[in-house]
Specification:
Blueprint (H helix, E strand, L loop, with lengths): L2 H14 L19 H8 L3 H5 L2 E4 L6 H9 L3 E5 L7 E4 L7 H4 L2 H7 L1 E3 L8 E4 L3 E3 L4 E2 L5 H12 L8 E4 L5 E2 L13 E3 L4 E3 L19 H4 L1 H8 L1
Parallel strand pairs: 1-2, 1-5, 5-8, 6-9, 8-10
Antiparallel strand pairs: 2-3, 3-4, 6-7, 10-11
Helix pairs in contact: 2-4
Amino acid sequence: MDKQALRERVWQKLDARGITTFPKPARGRIPNFVGSRTAATLLRSLPTYAQARTIFVNPDAAQLAVRELALRDGKRLIMATPRLREGFILLDPMEIKDAKGAASIRGAFKHGKKTSVYGVKVDLIVEGSVVVDRKGGRVGKGGGFGDLEFAILRETGAITDKTPIVTTVHPLQIVDEVPMSEHDVPVDFIVTPDRIIETTHAHPKPSGIIWELLPSDVFKRMPILAELRRK
């Protein structure tokens, strides 16, 4: 199956089986699944999570509990703004009293500070996914933002190819094989509500932004990319 066919199959299956929670339907989204908080809690048992001081987490609802628990655990949190229109937001747990409120997109804008991520060291990345496989293949919702966020973090030196990448998903989101391209970001660990799977790390991680793949209007929509290109 190609990527879109995989997405459509998983979105349909999640909705049909009542696995999707707000916002619904799953189609076009990183699906917020039943058990997402349980998966976030299990994630905390990973040594890479325990050792991390700064965690990058996507802004989708499926990882809301990951963001909340990270703040409660005293970890600095970096979030991408929706569609990267306003770059990244840094949340410092020492300055936040309402971890649950700050973990939402609206709360992050209220309690966090915009950051260029230059000079920041990210110890762990948590990605949202629509489909994953045990080799580490991953597919997002189709906008390419997760891959671009990773590439920007590489370009700024915030991460390396050794920085671990985790995703939290429902078991129905795991398939036999996901087709991967050179710009696609694989995952090292898959966390479901009842287990942690270390992938076989079959795919290399992109070394940065592949500029020739970006549409010409992206620099107007994402000023952070225009800044990176100038540098």
